[in-house]
Design a protein that fits this description.
Heat Shock Protein 90; disordered C terminus; rod-shaped; four-stranded mixed sheet; alpha+beta; two-stranded antiparallel sheet; 2 domains; 6 strands
Length: about 375
């Protein structure tokens, strides 16, 4: 449980203590030879106290404010003691000692400990020079120095505790991220194993039951299944059940299918991803290309690009790549039979001066060249 103290409460307490010193100074004006310098010092002290206590988003006191406080700390003892008799019983007339101590405690709390120690150090030296070493305790110098030391220690401790807390929070976040990554790896591995088992189990059972003596058709089907397992690794978010069926159908009719997901659709919402899958399945279902290349696109308006290559003679390409020996010998004769870019979002896009209907894009009707 975290317990916090409102900042306004701390500032109010500091203001009350500072005001109390001013009250003591006002009560003791009758003991000084000339009250005008003392009143001027009281005004300067009130102004500098308001400056160092002024609310700010930065916990560290600005250098100019700390230097202003140090200057007032040097001037006030010199001016006040100039109208006092060091041999007399001054009483509350030495209010400036506690006032300077309170001011320097505030400066130290706001992480300007160097200025605070310079201020109380000058006050202590000036007090010894003015009244002597024996009067240090009566003037209250020891108490002011002690409060600054205590403030410095507490401020340093809190700063160190805050830094260690931030380090612990950062380590906790890193540990949580690591745990989430490990859980994601485990879930992904389990899903891939389940998908691979569902795909390859029938064929593996056939291999066991037939002692590895497979027919040519079964051997070809094993190659298709091996490609499907590879798709699960390389295709990732490109696949759903309908796309898997269409890819397997294309391989079984003799087409070569390559899927490559490089993370271009990782940020696509689920509803848009379902639309992309539907468009991709529709494109594969109506394609007679001998070679299909499907890959994600990072950034831009399009999410997935589909390219289908094959012989310009559709009747020969429909028989499969193994029918035409000339096509096997010279792949440079392949032409683009299918060119499709599936948009990242369901919007109307212009392609070479022609605007596709939104319905055509959503249904994934390919552009055949």
């Amino acid at each position: 449980m975290r317990i916090t103290v409102p900042r306004w409460l701390i500032v109010s307490l500091a203001a009350v203590f500072s005001g109390y010193h001013l009250v003591l100074g006002a009560v003791s004006l009758g003991q000084v030879a000339d009250p005008v310098p003392v009143v001027a010092c009281m005004v300067a002290y009130a102004v500098v106290t308001a400056v160092v206590l002024w609310p700010s988003r930065q916990p560290v006191l600005p250098v100019w404010a700390a230097a202003f406080a140090l200057a007032v700390t040097i001037v006030v003892p010199l001016v006040v003691t100039s109208v006092l008799d060091p041999e007399a019983e001054n009483g509350y007339a030495t209010w400036y000692v506690a006032a300077v101590g309170t001011l320097m405690v505030i400066v130290s709390t706001r992480r300007r400990q160097g200025f605070a120690w310079l201020g109380v150090g000058f006050m202590a030296v000036q007090g010894v020079a003015w009244a002597g070493v024996a009067e240090i305790a009566d003037l209250g110098i020891v108490g002011s120095v002690s409060w600054v030391a205590f403030s410095h220690a507490i401020s340093s401790t809190l700063t160190r505790a805050g830094r260690e807390t931030r380090e612990f929070i950062l380590a906790e976040h890193e540990a949580a991220d690591w745990q989430a990554a490990q859980e994601a790896h485990v879930n992904e591995r389990q899903y891939r194993l389940l998908q691979t088992g569902r795909t390859a189990r029938p064929m593996l059972q056939a291999i066991v039951s037939q002692s590895g003596d497979l027919s040519p058709e079964q051997r070809q089907e094993s190659l298709h299944l091996e490609g499907a397992i590879r798709d699960e690794i390389r295709g990732r978010r490109l696949l759903d059940d309908e796309v898997r069926r269409e890819v397997m159908a294309a391989r079984r009719r003799g087409a070569e299918v390559s899927l490559l997901d490089e993370g271009g659709i990782d940020d696509v919402p689920d509803d848009e991803l379902r639309r992309i899958h539907a468009a991709l399945a529709a494109a594969l279902h109506g394609s007679h290309a001998d070679k299909l290349i499907i890959r994600t696109v990072g950034g831009g308006d399009h999410a997935v690009s589909v390219v289908g290559l094959g012989s310009p003679d559709l009747s020969s390409s429909a028989l499969g790549r193994g029918v035409s020996a000339e096509a096997d010998e010279d792949d440079d004769d392949d032409e683009v039979l299918l060119w499709l870019q599936i948009p990242r979002r369901a919007v109307i896009l212009a392609d070479q001066g022609r605007v596709e209907d939104l319905e055509d894009l959503e249904q994934g009707r390919p552009v055949v060249r």
